[in-house]
Design goal:
With 344 residues, the protein is an alpha/beta fold. It is 16% helix and 22% strand. It starts with a helix and ends with a strand. It is found in: Cell membrane.
């Protein structure tokens, strides 16, 4: 009887100790302090975007604890809270909305553990446009993995060449802004990129040859710009690519050289360009293709001489206004999943 009592007492003690330890761990995380310089930098950086009326120290005295800020994420590093993600703009119902006059304050670049930086529909004033800062990005080179500027009609100017310092970057999205000029060649130095989206801007000039070094890319979207010239040969070697969109530019020449190796590509969209020289074998070797959009290019050539049997995954094929000759070949009509759009 005494032995049973002792066992029961021991079990209760172990249970209580476990609960106490879990509670201590939880409380330690909850009570972790935030570095004062980090907190001040956060408040100032946000204030630059939302306006001087915003008093972070009063509204959110504990931004990583009991008074969280919508769009701000934190993590503990060395026993202190640090900012790891900052999203400005109407992402959510209670998100931080941008002021008419915004500024990139230098304190933004003092957030030394920042991994993700996003701006959505933030820079909207055409009367008070703003440019992306040209310097200081190297201060975030040790941490930043994702940059997104989406739907900012008041964002003008060129892409900073200092983006080339951000060697840890995995995602660079500059979508539907009013950015101009040529695409910096040193973006090709960002060899950890798996997503590069520069669509819906006003970029001009050629696609940099350096893009051929981005071997980890899964998504490459350069659509809806004014890019011109021939495709760099190196693009055909981006074997990891799943989606490749070049539509609505002024690109010319043959689509791909014979050494193109895009076996994993599921979408290729080159509509509304100036590609010519007919369809060549590298396209028919893209066995994973599900969508092939070629319309409104002076491609020319004879569709009857092409063997389409290798594209068994093809669902959508747009060949309207490409200048092809001949009737639909049996190898094309034999693709069971296919929907053919347009006339050539």
């Amino acid at each position: 009887m005494l032995m049973r009592s002792n066992r029961f007492t021991l079990a209760v003690c172990i249970l209580c100790l476990g609960i106490w330890c879990c509670g201590q761990a939880y409380n330690t995380e909850e009570a972790a302090p935030m570095e004062k310089a980090e907190q001040a930098a956060l408040y100032s950086a946000i204030q630059g975007f939302v306006g001087n009326w915003w008093n972070g120290s009063d509204l959110y005295p504990d931004p990583c604890g009991w008074t969280p800020i919508q769009g701000v994420s934190c993590d503990i590093v060395g026993g202190l809270w640090y900012i790891t993600a900052l999203s400005i703009g109407p992402f959510y119902e209670n998100s931080l909305a941008c002021a008419t006059n915004v500024e990139f304050r230098p304190q933004l670049f003092q957030l030394k553990h920042l991994k993700s930086l996003s701006f959505f529909n933030c820079f909207v004033s055409l009367r008070h446009p703003i440019t992306i800062p040209g310097d200081k990005w190297e201060k975030l080179a040790g941490s930043l993995q994702s940059i997104e500027f989406r739907s900012n009609p008041g964002l003008i100017g060129q892409v900073p060449t200092s983006f080339g310092y951000l060697k840890k970057l995995q995602s660079l999205v500059l979508l539907e802004n009013r950015l101009t000029g040529q695409v910096p060649t040193n973006i090709g130095n960002l060899t950890n990129l798996n997503r590069l989206v520069l669509a819906g801007n006003r970029f001009t000039g050629r696609i940099p040859d350096s893009f051929g070094r981005l071997k980890k890319l899964l998504i490459l979207d350069l659509s809806r710009n004014s890019l011109s010239g021939h495709l760099p040969l190196g693009l055909g070697g981006l074997a990891s690519l799943l989606k490749f969109d070049l539509s609505n530019n002024q690109l010319k020449g043959k689509l791909f050289a014979r050494n193109a190796y895009l076996k994993n590509l599921t979408l290729l969209d080159v509509r509304n360009n100036k590609f010519s020289g007919g369809l060549n074998q590298p396209i028919l070797d893209m066995h994973s293709l599900e969508e092939l959009m070629l319309s409104c290019n002076p491609l020319g050539g004879d569709i009857m001489r092409l063997d389409w049997q290798s594209l068994q995954s093809l669902v959508v094929l747009d060949l309207s206004n490409v200048g092809l000759k001949g009737e639909i070949p049996e190898s094309l009509s034999g693709l069971k999943r296919l929907e053919v759009s347009g006339t050539w």
